[in-house]
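Sanity check

After download, print the first record. It should look like this:
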Amino acid sequence: MAKRQLNRRQFLRTLGLGTAMVALNPMEVLGQEKKIAPASADNKMTYRVQNGTGERVSLLGFGMMRLPSDNQELVNQLVDYALAHGVNYFDTAPIYGRGLNEGITGAALTPRNRSSSQVSCRTAFRVCACSCAT
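Expected structure tokens:
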């Protein structure tokens, strides 16, 4: 049997299509059906203990970067879903959502026992409230 030679363009096209198929729907490509697990006592989140404070932080965090800044109700539903599945670590930043993301995150977490959640806020520089030069 003669080997089929692929030129660079054909190779990239074949590779790209295969990658896109797996990325778009990996479970169907692998012959498995997609399942979204409901929140229940059987679904246990893994937690790590934070050094120094002893607080439990979920191993899986919720990145708030791509949340819609104009749909608080949808954000509330997503946060409720995450909390129901044991997520208590939320990542936000001042630059996310044209500067509105931190407020949206706070509005979603405040009525839902904000004190039991860990919120990480990324900044590009360190701000010091003291008189030292840092």
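If your output differs, re-run the checksum step. Summary of this record's structure: The chain has a mean pLDDT of 74.
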